[in-house]
């Protein structure tokens, strides 16, 4: 469908678009983007597993683990966040464990479990943003 040149151009455009979004995002929006990226990566890993594309499955799981560890988990303030931060830390740690198991065992059930655990967190985070900024409610 795309020539190698147009595919490269499309990729460059996506990278610029993402960078622009990140540059103009609030801290709340950045976490929302992390949740979105995590769910996309898990969904992509599941699709790759179903197609038998093990390399892509591995790549997507690595992306999901990095988002959990380097994005969401590292942003938690365990000293000031109290029980909520501790619970999220445990949830993210468990999700990393399940993603690792899914990768090693080609386990779609583990991938589905991570999506089921993260989706409510992502929805709640988005709702918090909508409550804080009424302009987002109509979007």
In short:
This protein has helices spanning 4-23, 27-51, 54-73, 82-105, 108-132. With 139 residues, it is mainly α.
Strand content: under 5%
Q: What is the fold named in CATH at topology level?
A: Four Helix Bundle (Hemerythrin (Met), subunit A)
Fraction in helix? over 70%
Mean pLDDT: 87
Number of strands: 0
Query: Cα distance, first to last residue?
Result: 32 Å
Which class do the helix and strand fractions yield?
A: mainly alpha
Total helical segments: 5
Which ranges are low-confidence, i.e. pLDDT below 50, for 5 or more consecutive residues? none
Main sheet makeup: none
Summary keywords:
139 residues; mainly alpha; Four Helix Bundle (Hemerythrin (Met), subunit A); 5 helices; globular
Q: Could you explain the architecture of this structure?
A:
It is a single chain. With 139 residues, the protein is an all-alpha fold. The protein is 82% helix and 0% strand. The protein contains 5 helices and no strands. Helix 4 runs antiparallel to helix 5. The protein is globular and about 45 Å long. The chain starts with a helix and ends in a 7-residue tail after the last helix.
Topology:
Elements: H1 4-23, H2 27-51, H3 54-73, H4 82-105, H5 108-132
